[in-house]
Design brief:
GO molecular function: hydrolase activity
Family: Belongs to the peptidase S33 family.
Helix content: 25-40%
Keywords: Hydrolase, Signal
Strand content: 5-15%
Structural class: alpha/beta
InterPro entries: AB_hydrolase_1, AB_hydrolase_fold, Pept_S33_TAP-like_C, Serine_prot/Carboxylest_S33
Radius of gyration: 23 Å
Amino acid sequence: MQFPSLLFTMVNNKAFISFVLLGASLVVNVLAQQSSQDNVLETSTKLKWTDCYTQLQCARLQVPLNYSDPDGGTASIAVIRFPSPLAGTDDYKGPILFNPGGPGGSGVQMIADGGAAFSELLGANFDIVSFDPRGVGFSTPRVSFFDTEAQRQFFGSFDVINATSDGLARIWARAQITGALAARHNQHNVLEHFNTENTARDMLRIVEAHGQRNIQYWGFSYGTVLGATFASLFPDRISRLVLDGVVDAEDYYATLWSKNLLDADKTLQIFFDDCFKGGPDLCPFYEPSPQAISRKLDDLTRATFLRPVPVLTGISYGLVDYARLQMSIFQSLWSPYALFPQLAQGLADLINGNGTTLYQIMEQPLFDCSCGTPTPPTIIADGGIAISCTDGQEVRDTVDELELYLQGLLRDSQWGEGMAKARKETFPSHPILWIGNTADPATPIAGARKMAQGFPGSVVLAQDSPGHCSIAAPSVCTSKFVRAYFMNGTLPDEGVVCPVDGPIFTGQSVGAADPSVRRALGVDEKDGDIVQALARLRRSFRVPLPF
């Protein structure tokens, strides 16, 4: 699908472009006041677990703010785990550490939502552990470029490059403001300590605090950069490393973000193809051919650009305009099995003037400015911005230079404008399991194949599916390989491609499919727990967008 004049972009209302594109002198404000959740738990050099959420345990681990000055300031890392019921027995196999991506994604939230499902997927032998990286979420010091959440919300907006003639220049100008706000809040000069290398060192401290020497780790998206960095720093401290939805780390550290979208258009094509295969009973946006469905979306995009649709739901209100439509489509590319059916219904409704279903793909409750002592939110974009830009090479594009960069991205994908704002070395280690989907809209499988070349003995496992990271689609095949790798270190043969367990638009679950179909897919009766765990993870876990 091509939009001749309505090309997509979205700029996060936390102004990610401010730093990635301009290389501004980033600085942070360390919030003096911490949330009530922060104060409940004692920060210690040991993991002192306290019951939290449901069936989970939380702790705060003290680490050096600057590993070159270990006796200087400290950071407090919020850690969470779904504990293994087999701890203390011969069957216990230690912790598996997770990172949800981003950068800036909350590992605490990830395990709060999906810890039990990950335990079911991998086996009760492991503690399922994650953390909020330094500068992010419940970890402190916390990065913020604003005095209050109200300021952040009121400054925020979605800017669309081609919605107005000055769209690109407006994005550049807003970046100048955000850079100035960051400079104004530089109270403690700690930005240089918020980076992937230090987060990797924090992970080693978490592993050691569990009484282990070597890491077991499953990282998604940006979490693959974190995992590869750990492998580079500590090649002799690896037991198991699964890197899923692989980012080209060289491209990331060069602040290019130029290789992410190579398969994005392929992912959207799968929506057209599978909607056609599903038929009008299963796909409400159906037309007699994939090409006709594509043209239908083109027409709807143009109509929405000219006439936004108002929406009022039970928790919020707003417009389905050009930007909202495009963001919702792009979001659905990350989780096709979870969101393509809703996208199809939303697009069909939108043609008839009803934008509610489409709007709800990315709906959040309206911001409420409360009085009294503010409680910092679990997730804000500022921490991820700081990590990305501290990691990357400095960029100071002018508006004209930014236009040239954008045109280069658009040659790879129609979604290039969205990634425009998101502007190493290799070392031997224990064999790593790299996983890539054949149609990943954000981390093409080429990134996994490139990265694996630098780590001898590693294997790339391909999953024949759309979506971002393997758990975006149901594949018992992939899940079995991951479990076997964590259990006993077994790697799949090179060249293995795992199928998914059913089509996107279907009236049947895998468990209800014909037994011969299940056998052909490698799914049998005893895999029911894996199927259910994968379904729960698709509902609860979303890899964060990098902007």
